[in-house]
Amino acid sequence: MKRLKTTSPKSSSNGVPDDRERNEILRFDSDEAQIQAIGVLVERGMLNFSSNRLDEWIVYTSVARKLREHGVPFHWLGEHS
Amino acid sequence: MPTSTTERRPVDVTALEEHAARMKLRAGIVLPESNKKSVLVPHDSFVPVLQADIGSAVSITVYRYRLLVPLVQIVEERDRSIRHFPIASYADLYVIRNTLIRHFGGVTVLHQPSAPALGVGARDPSDATSAPSRLNLGIEPLQLDPCFLDSELPIDGSLLLVDTG
Fold this sequence. Notes:
heterodimer; A: alpha+beta; Alpha-Beta Plaits; B: alpha+beta
């Protein structure tokens, strides 16, 4: 499976990671990636998202970060982190 | 109903498809000024008839349905040991989620592990005489938000519990 570009979360000017929660839009390239994402979030009690398109999730910033932390491949549209 | 010790079959939503088969235009269209008797409309211009007209200029009344999907069954064995049996798989959740999007136009998936539904006294149906057990549904609600749901829409009772509250 193609590994998408990942970046570490940016820090605010005082060096503290930005923990603000926004709605983020994630786009997945495959069914497998979405099932992997569901598994990662269920195991951590973080499964909380909305969708009105089959390949997109609307999630909080912390959820997107958690998926990235665990290597789930996705495109983070309008990335805030 | 599968027992705790047997392999559970994947969720099968094919029985629901016929209820979402009738389609309507997603939005009104302006017919071209021509003498043609037929008009070509892209396939993605249609949505299931049972989908609510969200975004309508006039107010509409919709129903909100919450599907509760059990994830784990917790059973207390005769020796008081506790065993966890997975029920819905991650792939099952994905299939249900996709079905709700295709049929109703959207879904909110919310995991509430901190407030599990408890069914005290539930038994393995293949062994009803066993020691009292607990059924921890490990609830996985799928909240349809918002939607219109045909009142005759059947739910796969083997997996989904329906909370219409």
